[in-house]
Amino acid sequence: MSPDKYKKLTKLRKSLDDLDNVLIKVIKKRTSLVNQVLKLKKHKYQIVDNKRIKKILIQIRKKSIKNNIDPKITKRIWINMIRAYIDYERRNFKKK
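Above: the chain sequence. Below: its structure as tokens.
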């Protein structure tokens, strides 16, 4: 790799690292909201809402297409995020 390309690569990686830091803050905020939602659920079966998941994935697809983002990427990200939060809710659910 030429020195010029290496410099560009280093700069791009720095930008990705900066964006990752922003994403971490967003995930922290999302987790806080999930915790608030979890406190409202009385039964463990309320954790998974398949209608809501389907609706979210449809909206993400529409937004991805509108913003010229490959919808396969965003679908995979959201499915994994949803699964991770379902697991999180199951681990942190407390019966009232």
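Residues 6 and 12 are 10 Å apart (CA to CA).
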